[in-house]
Structures are given as C-alpha cells and as structure tokens.
TrEMBL record:
It comes from the Bacteria. Gene3D superfamilies: 3.40.190.290. Transmembrane segments: none annotated. This is LysR substrate-binding domain-containing protein. InterPro entries: LysR_subst-bd. Residues 3-124 form the LysR substrate-binding domain. It comes from Komagataeibacter swingsii.
Amino acid sequence: MRVEVRTLYAEHQVLAAVDDFELPLQPEITWEEAATLPLALLTKGMHCRQLIDTGFQIAGVTPNVQMESDSLELIHAELMLGNVVTILPIASFPLRISGEQKLQKRALQGFSPGFIGLCRMKDEPITTFASRAWGTAVAIDHAHAIEKSCLTPVETEK
C-alpha cells in the first residue's frame, strides 16, 4: 500500500499570557524564563505537553506548573483570569479567545516545530467527497491563515 502525505503547516508552540501579565518584551522567551512563570499546561500524556517537557528538560529546569488539564477550554479560561500563563500550539487560540480579549504571545527559544498534515491511501478508491475535501485542505495556505488570525506583534513599548 502506498500512502500520500501532505504537510499543511508547521505547528508552533507559544507562551501566552493576558496583556497585563508582565512578560519580557523580547519576541522570544527562554525555557529558563518560562520555567519561573505560573504555568497551566496540558496533561503529561498529551503530545504537545511531551514536547514542552522535553524543552524544559533540555534547558535543565523544572517548570512551575500550577495547573494541568486535558481541556483547552479550561486552560484558556484560567489563562484569561490572568493568574497563569500557558504554552500551547498557536493554532489553539483563535477559536477560543474572543477578539476583545487580548493575549500576548512569545516564541520559545530553540523550539523546533512539528508539522501538521494529512495522509491518505493512494491505492484505495477515493470517494468524490474525500477527493474534494483533500483538494480543499491542500489548497488552503494554513500557515498564512494561522499567522493572520493568531499572531500579534510584540510591543516594544508599553
């Protein structure tokens, strides 16, 4: 069996906090700096959390985890209260944070993104619906759409 694989975009993890939470002003934050902040993270069994734990391990620091959950909604709710910051994939934010609620986001130094994509069996008959869905998904510029809806420039002056 042959498999066709298409990469759609690079998945970037970012540290996010409400606008009035005091974060360093530079566009990237170190793992050492992130470890000192009160963190709300996904549970240890989730792939995104495993990537984050690897980042802290490589930096040789222990993160200050205040809350763990397998619910993005719960993490986002706690984040918006302003008591914690989080590290999540950038694409997890636009559907859960309304336009009036502002977040500041920082890239994590030295973080290698994973890739999100699609795969399908090439030898199997493909339905019209599946073929159209595949065509639509690969035609979208996902990286641009995520950047447009999720990323905000880091302010250098407050």
